[in-house]
Write the structure tokens for this entry.
Amino acid sequence: MTSGILTSSGIKAPGDYIEDVMISVKAKNPAEPEFHQAVREVFDSLRLVLAKHPEYQSNRILDRIVEPERVLMFRVPWLDDQGGVQVNRGFRIEMNSAIGPYKGGLRFHPSVNLGILKFLAFEQVFKNSLTTLPMGGGKGGSDFDPKGKSDNEVMRLCQSFMTELQRHIGPNTDVPAGDIGVGGREIGYLFGQYKRLRNEFTGVLTGKGLNWGGSLIRPEATGYGCVYFADEMLKSRKDSLDGKLCLVSGSGNVSQYTVEKLLDLGAKPVTVSDSNGVIYDPDGIDREKLAYVLELKNVRRARIRDYADRYKKAIFMPTDVKLEHSPLWNIKADCAFPSATQNEITAKDAANLLKNGVKLVAEGANMPSTLEATKLFLDAKILYGPAKAANAGGVATSGLEMSQNSARISWTREEVDDKLHKIMISIHRNCYETAEKYGTSGNLVNGANIAGFMKVADAMLDQGLV
Ligand code: NDP
């Protein structure tokens, strides 16, 4: 445990300090492996920083940054269409507000629990710091499963969820957005209930509809931003996306707009997936097929398997839970864009990707690669864009939505896209230069973790022991 291990002059070597805090994180947050994994990944990069900046250690910044400022957990009761009582659990982790109001999405998925949300909230702190915008980090959600639920059931769940959450959030306090299972429909129901209970029309959520305070390009932003980031990585090696064969996982918000931007930049995406299986389309997913995927997933809310019924050359490979790898990552390609969920790329998947000659991995999903997979990518020195940098375009554009709401103005599509693009270029440059400065040239994991951490840690030092 960390208590008593330090004096104000810092008696421990940085490596020992990190290991002590890591032990404490595991002891205080048992059975939360995803949270441990996210902390471990950041801490591994911070060894380089603590050696140069003993003030972070003497002020116990690591002990403080792993501890959420506030954790909310609450009952979410709702009535199903048969009049039966259903009870879910709601959460909001307010992780760190050193550089701005808490900001981060809400996830509705049966796998949601405290550990998953703590990992996401922890990642969010550093990601938001990298965006150049003034946003702290938070994350929330529910173990509610939207699959197979009617619109009315989703609305009742959202209303019940917001009836409690509204006490804790606000445009200058905590501004949630969407994530897995929370898209435009859910944000609408959540916003409606907030407005009704608080009697105020304010930018308390992002990802809103265009007629009621939303920003152009917000739905596209995570996918577009991830591809802009990939483009910057390739430019650093005098290469481009033009003609590249690309693997994309998932078929939700991030995947859809990753595929679209890949097409804009001349690449050839050949896969999409959902939790039931993988579609491989050797002819490529063109704009007409992408429009079909959007209709299938966003309107009919059906399974990706249907794609292979419509496009006969496409192959559907069902998910086999007994396998510890996915056939998606064993298809020969130049670039990979994991855009579904955490730990979807195992060590075996990473080995398959490398064996097949993949040159670039850009993470649209949060923490899609296990620690072992990440190590394989870094050792192979391929272009590897970690999630907290590569997928920061979504929250950055949420930040732009907040600015437009505060100023009561709306920027054009071109204006928002241009700002998003510039932010992604700046995040890449910041990560690249920071990696170089700390003697690990090309390692964007170190670059992202160190640059994201230092801005938050310095703000914490400035603000005293709070
Ligand atoms: P969506 O709900 O729109 O889509 C998620 C996709 O991933 C679906 O195709 C879903 O399949 C699949 N998926 C989810 N869980 C699993 C699982 N356990 N196993 C296999 N497939 C799964 O979510 P988003 O596109 O918004 O989010 C995708 C990822 O991107 C997440 O990691 C999220 O945290 C991250 N992200 C999202 C941002 C955003 O702006 N939306 C911003 C930054 C990161 P199925 O339909 O079968 O569940």
